[in-house]
Amino acid sequence: MDEAEIRTRIELLRQDHRDLDAAIEALRTLPMPDMIQLQRFKKKKLRLKDEIMLLEDQLIPDIIA
């Protein structure tokens, strides 16, 4: 995967992350939120964050000290 593909993937993941934020907030405002769905969204959001961090690490060149 080249740098442009990585950057595009990161941006897509960030959008998904923001969308999950909105979904989580919408679920929380319900009178009786589905706690199982809420936990699923939170776990997915964490997985997205981890993938974003891994991809960002690929963009940082290794520095030999």
Low-confidence stretches: none
Mean pLDDT: 94
| Number of helices, where a helix is a run of at least 4 consecutive DSSP H or I residues | 2
Radius of gyration: 16 Å
Largest sheet: none
Textual characterization of the structure:
This protein is mainly α and 65 residues long. Helices cover 80% and strands 0% of the residues. It has two helices and no strands. The chain has helices spanning 3-29, 35-59. Helix 1 (3-29) runs antiparallel to helix 2 (35-59). It is elongated. 0% of the residues are buried.
In brief:
With 65 residues, the chain is mostly helical.
Supply the key terms.
65 residues; mainly alpha; 2 helices
Tell me the layout of helices and strands.
Layout: H1 3-29, H2 35-59
Helix pairs in contact: 1-2
